[in-house]
Amino acid sequence: MNQLNITLNQKTTSTGHLEITLKLDGNLDNTTVAALQAKLTPSLEAKPAQLIFDLASLKYVTSIGIRLFFMAVKQQKPHGGHVSFVHLQPQIKEVFAIMGSLPDMSIFRDQNELDAYLLARQRTYQS
After folding, report:
1. Cut 0.70: pTM above it
2. Three-state DSSP state, 15
3. Which CATH number fits domain 4-126: 3.30.750.24, 3.30.1330.40, 3.40.50.980, 3.40.50.80?
4. Suppose 76 and one of 18, 81, 109, 116 were both cysteines; which one would form an S-S bond, judging by CB atoms 3.0 to 4.6 Å apart?
């Protein structure tokens, strides 16, 4: 039986922007996608400036999971929000590679690389 555990963390940055992180642990497929959808929908309704998927413990993802990621990107665009992915395991990187370069999605090696990117972006907007 496939299982997906989802941990949701949200914080307000020093600039007052909402940042939501969804940490996925397990398999994202037809039997577990509803669980992610249930957490993702209210997160997107909050219109975060940054939506981060931490995939360090994601073992498997199918096309329905990728479709949900695309939907998140699409819903973030109208209010200028961004979607990022961190800690992709090799098998998940392979799925992303097969799907091609995903438009408007940022993929980072780890949290430090993401933090550096966000800090640089924040400085750009403050200038």
Report:
1. yes
2. coil
3. 3.30.750.24
4. 81
